[in-house]
TrEMBL record:
One of its GO terms (molecular function) is D-ribulose-phosphate 3-epimerase activity. The keyword Isomerase applies. A divalent metal cation binds at H33, D35, H66, D175. The active site is at D35 (proton acceptor), D175 (proton donor). This is Ribulose-phosphate 3-epimerase. Its EC number is 5.1.3.1. One of its GO terms (biological process) is pentose catabolic process. Catalyzes the reversible epimerization of D-ribulose 5-phosphate to D-xylulose 5-phosphate. It catalyses: D-ribulose 5-phosphate = D-xylulose 5-phosphate. Gene3D superfamilies: Aldolase class I.
Length: 218
């Protein structure tokens, strides 16, 4: 199985966002990863609903919306209306995680849960069968272009074991520091989805870089 590739537009040129989305449309990317940051859950602010709506107008690939925000349960319906296909919330931001997952499914989106680098996989044991995507943060969330955290490989292996042992169907998504070196090692541990931001958008040939990621195997 080829990996699902989800370029993160956090690293795109926002002055030419339509052109960047058109490039992704024509590339072998599978999803378009959209990082929403509120300056509270993470120490950075990215973009919100109006930009997501604008992206959705031009995108021909599913929008994989990653909510790095406090109280995501207040905005699920709005992000669906803005064009989200997948909505991922952070374990650390949800006191009532199961309820938020149900909320996401109720608006007919795939439900994702993201784990910060310090958050153990075992905390998902009781809920893994309800999740469509688990997003493992391989950098501390908030900024692009950070160094990959090596412990991620073991974490992915542990998560793969949990999913398989429960006959769950969750996809394992990796966000942060993904490139042609880390990618195959992550796939070898059981990853399904690779998010890449600066590695794609700062490349001399982004479509070819996306294709190279698509061609990776463990």
């Amino acid at each position: 199985m080829k990996p699902i590739i989800a370029p993160s537009i956090l690293a795109a040129d926002f002055a030419n966002l339509q052109a960047q989305i058109e490039m992704l449309n024509q590339s072998s990317a599978d999803w378009i990863h959209c990082d929403i940051m509120d300056g509270r859950f993470v120490p950075n602010i990215s973009f919100g609903l109006p930009v997501l709506e604008a992206v959705h107008k031009h995108a021909r690939k599913p929008l994989d919306v990653h909510l790095m925000i406090m109280e995501p349960q207040l905005y699920i319906e709005q992000f669906k209306k803005a064009g989200a296909s997948n909505i991922t919330v952070h374990y650390e931001a949800c006191t009532h995680l199961h309820r938020v997952i149900e909320q996401i499914k109720a608006v007919d989106c795939k439900a994702g849960v993201a784990l910060n680098p310090h958050t153990p996989v075992a905390l998902l044991t009781d809920i893994i069968q309800d999740i469509d995507v688990v997003c493992v943060m391989s950098v501390n969330p908030g900024f692009g272009g950070q160094k990959f955290i090596q412990h991620t490989y073991a974490k992915v292996a542990e998560l793969r074991q949990l999913i398989d042992s429960r006959n769950a169907h969750a996809l394992i998504e990796i966000d942060g520091g993904v490139n042609e070196e880390t990618g195959p090692l992550l796939l070898a541990q059981g990853a399904d989805v690779l998010v890449a931001g600066s590695f794609v958008f700062q490349a001399t040939d982004p479509p070819q870089t996306i294709q190279n990621l698509k061609n990776l195997h463990s």
